[in-house]
Amino acid sequence: MSFDPPERITGDDHYDSDHSICPYCRYKHHVESEDYSEDPRVEECSQCGMKFHLSQRFSVDHVTTPDCGLNGQPHEYRMHTISGRNFCKYCGRIEPLSESNASGVAAAGATPD
Ligand SMILES: [Zn+2]
Ligand SMILES: [Zn+2]
Q1: Do 44 and 22 touch, CB atoms closer than 8 A?
Q2: DSSP 78
Q3: What is the reported pTM?
Q4: 59 CA from centroid of ligand 2 (Å)
Q5: Ligand 2 center to residue 64 CA distance, Å?
Q6: What protein residues have CB closer than 5 angstroms to ion ligand 1?
Q7: Closest by Cα among 47, 3, 40 to 24
Q8: Contact at 8 Å (CB) between 47 and 40?
Q9: pLDDT tens digits for 7-52?
Q10: CA of 24 to the centre of ligand 1 (A)
Q11: By the 8 A CB rule, do 47 and 22 touch?
Q12: What span, in angstroms and rounded, lies between the C-alpha atoms of 22 and 43?
């Protein structure tokens, strides 16, 4: 069940990441994250008693991560001075210890992690 807000010309919407702000008296209501919904609904201000439309907007972050293996490319490992581990300068992949041993002299007696 949703209440569609009326079509409007001017935007006097109030944005706040943690609260729903009453558009009439500007009272800040705390909204529990479990109550988040993109469906507009009617809330009644506990301060002034006026009703208003409330909905949440979710933003999406597009995260892209390179992966040499995905492209059939060899990783090019460099020493990370802080951690002492090797990491690929292209995709940032940390070289597994077993590979690190194998690329060394000989993997004789190496115990895989
Ligand atoms: Zn109010
Ligand atoms: Zn890589």
Answers
A1: no
A2: E
A3: 0.47
A4: 30
A5: 14
A6: 22, 24-25, 27, 45, 47-48
A7: 47
A8: no
A9: 777 667 888 888 999 999 999 999 888 888 888 899 999 999 999 9
A10: 5
A11: yes
A12: 9
